[in-house]
Amino acid sequence: MRRVPVLGLAGLAAVAMTVTGCEKPAPGITVFSGTSSIRSEALCWAFDSDQLTPGECADEILRGQTTQGIQTLPAVPGNTVGISVDPVVAESGWNIVIGGQSLSESPLTTNYFRFTLPLQLGSQALPLQIVSGQDTKIRGVWIVGLEPEAA
After folding, report:
1. What is the pTM (predicted TM-score) of this model?
2. Does some domain include residue 12?
3. Which domain covers residue 119, as residue numbers?
4. Residue 33 lies inside a defined structural domain of this protein
5. What is the DSSP letter of 143?
6. Which residues, listed in sequence order, are joined to residue 28 by a DSSP beta bridge?
7. Is the residue at 5 inside a domain?
8. pLDDT for residue 13 is more than 90
9. Longest dimension (CA), the chain
C-alpha cells in the first residue's frame, strides 16, 4: 500500500485554495452581436442582500464616472444584439438601458433578450447597461460598450 506524505497533501490543499481563491465570482452576462461575443462579470454585485448599499460602486458606474472594467464589443448598426444572463440575475429581474433609455417597461425575468441596434450610433462606443434588481433596489451592474463597426 502506498502512502502519501501528510506534508504533500497539506501543500496541495494550500495550492488549491490559492488557485481557487476565497472570493465567490460575481454573476455574469454574455453579450453578442454578429460573430463577436464577450462574457463579463458584474462590475458591482450584492452577494449578501437583494440590493447594493448606498455608496457602493454602482452609483459611480451608472453616472459614467468610471470606466474601469468596461469591455467593448464590435457591433454593426441595424444588426441584432443578444444578451444572456446567469440564472441568479434572471431571478432578481434585470433591465437593459441603452442611450439612457430602458428597453423594457418592466424588469425581465428570462435568461435571454435580443434587440436591434439603432442605425444612428455615431462614432463613439454606446454604453449598454445591464442593471439587476427590481424598482429602486439595484443588485448588480454590468456595462458593455457597443463599438460601431461598418457592415
Report:
1. 0.77
2. no
3. 25-148
4. yes
5. E
6. 41
7. no
8. no
9. 72
